[in-house]
Amino acid sequence: VQLVESGGGLVQAGGSLILSCVTSGFTFDDFAIGWFHQAPGKKREFVACNSATGRNVIPLYAASAKGRFYASRDSAKNTAYLRMNSQKPEDTGVYFCATDVRGFCHSESWRDSNYGQWGQGTQVTVSS
């Protein structure tokens, strides 16, 4: 099982980035994909969750991400995406994607203990 994030970089406040999470080694369509953010010196925190393909569940977002970030997935490419708009300096940090074996996002999706496999993360820096 492998998850590889990419797309991070340096962006000015108000700008946008699209992060990718390319997966392999498991049936992508069976798993929910979560996104987490770890700011410098802080704990890893939930950003978004996108349910498995075919599950009629809309993505879940942390309050800080709602209205600015959008989680999506492409089954043909076994890839999940996180589009981040209107970025703020506090969005700076490492972003991780992870798999939730339950296949759907739920009220406990914010807990990182619900996720089994993690990528190595991609760094995002938002300048003011």
> What Rg, in angstroms, do the CA atoms define?
13 Å
Shape: globular
Counting DSSP E segments of at least 2 residues, the number of strands comes to 11
Distance between the first and last residues' Cα: 37 Å
Task: Determine the fraction of residues in helical runs and give it as a percent range.
Answer: under 10%
**Quaternary structure of the protein:** single chain
Spans of at least 5 consecutive residues whose pLDDT stays below 50 are none
Question: Mean of residue pLDDT?
Answer: 95
In DSSP terms (H or I, runs of 4 or more residues), the helix count works out at 0
Largest sheet: 7 strands, mixed
Helix and strand element order: EEEEEEEEEEE
Beta-strand percent range: over 45%
| Classification by helices and strands | mainly beta
Considering the chains and any ligands shown, give keywords for the structure.
128 residues; mainly beta; 7-stranded mixed sheet; 4-stranded antiparallel sheet; 11 strands; 0% helix
What does this structure look like?
This protein is 0% helix and 48% strand. With 128 residues, the chain is mainly β. It contains no helices and eleven strands. The strands form two sheets. Strands 2, 4, 5, 6, 9, 10 and 11 form a seven-stranded mixed β-sheet that branches. It has a four-stranded antiparallel β-sheet with strand order 1-3-8-7, with no helix packed on it.
